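Checked the freezer inventory, then went back to the computational side. Two predictions to log before the end of the day. The first one is the construct we discussed on Monday; recording sequence and tokens without edits.
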Amino acid sequence: MRKEDVFARYSRQIFIEEIGLEGQKKIQAAKVLVIGAGGLGSPVIQYLAAAGVGTLGIADFDEVELHNLNRQVIHHERTVGTSKVKSAVQFVKNLNHQVECIEIEEKINQTNAEYLLRQYDMIIDGSDNFSTRYLVNDTCVKLGKTLVYGSIFGFLGQVAVFNHQGSKNLRDLFPEPPFGEDIPDCDRLGVLGALPGIIGSMMAMQALKLITDLPVNVNQLTLVDTLEWRFQTLDF
């Protein structure tokens, strides 16, 4: 992209004093891995691609299903039955062809986690199960990678930045994952589609602030209750 094209496309974020051209250059040089192309991953992928993140890794092993469409807004009816990663990459290409997408059509596990995460500057976890969340957290701690974390359930959401420049991580907040009946299940109990849009957008905002070296709160969990419309932060 020529310099004038960069300005024409990204002028509304370049106009922000704290971003400017230097901040935009940082965004375009960033390499971010998004784990999960579902409810949380959809708005994260959408807004990072729109902002011009240079390299976007997208990891998911699932296919698009009809019931996904109430919240996973980067997918559509024509992609039902196809790979979520391929659907997500096509969405990004249609939105911003300058973004380099890395397709990772596999589950993050003990064997591949360190290899996959090592290649990126920052990790954003939009997974929907505790085993993956704790594996990703532990791998980020081992590799010294900043992790943007989010979770949703019903009307409730959580957002945090873990392991940033020596800050605390998921196990400092929740030392062990829940088991059995303690695990909330969106497939069984549901989620209102706009909630992951809110939480995912907050995750994308934190990621962009981190990329452009703007201050973010660490050692803090943001709780969002969209039913009572309450937002609070807990220090840990």
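The second is the one RB wanted added to the comparison set:
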Amino acid sequence: MQRLIYLAEDDDTIRELIVYAASSEGYDIKAFSNADLLLRECEKQMPDLILLDIMMPGTDGITALKKIREREQGGEPHIILLTAKVTEINRIKGLDAGADDYITKPFSVLELMARIRASLRKKDKSSGVGIKSGKLEVNDIVLCLDTRSVSVSGRLVPLTLKEFELLKFLMQSVGVVVEREVIFKKVWGDEYFGETRTVDIHMKNLRGKLGEASSAIQSIRGVGYILLRNNE
């Protein structure tokens, strides 16, 4: 099945170049000159992946990203940010808002296509294919593998794809200290470009959503994290 990609980029040259490259690789890509047009299209149909420039007239990329993550109806697309901003704080803002990856301008089209392929492979792996139906339960946290849902004390907790995979890995490794590098490799995969700081950012978001139940997730200074049962 042909994969659907949305692109929001206000630079005509960059937009046309990405459209040409993506189309040449067999993707169905729809390009927009601003984020508002992309958001309107998302209301009709969610794509498999979104390429989102940060600096655009009107609604900026980070704001658009937040709106997409708040909605997430009809699927949860992977989102790659395209940005000329290279400071750590701006990368963190994007990851905090729910981005799966980012690439800084100027970038190689070949690298961008590689990241698109990697992101879609990761999305496929996380879609539930090859995962047995069942539940993981630790304390008041229940994670359903078949429905890909999480609840705390019966309250449904909406998580992003990465947050779900992060929690699943911790629950599968309950009682064991897992290093940041191991978490990053397991959740993001070898094909992703990034740093272990990404783990801390997503962990902070996950803890916030889990509320009091997040006290079971303990930081091991300089090493990683451990999820403990209440009686441990």
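For RB: The helical segments are 12-24, 35-44, 61-71, 88-96, 109-125, 161-172, 180-188, 197-210. Confidence is low (pLDDT under 50) at residues 127-133. Let me know if you want it refolded.
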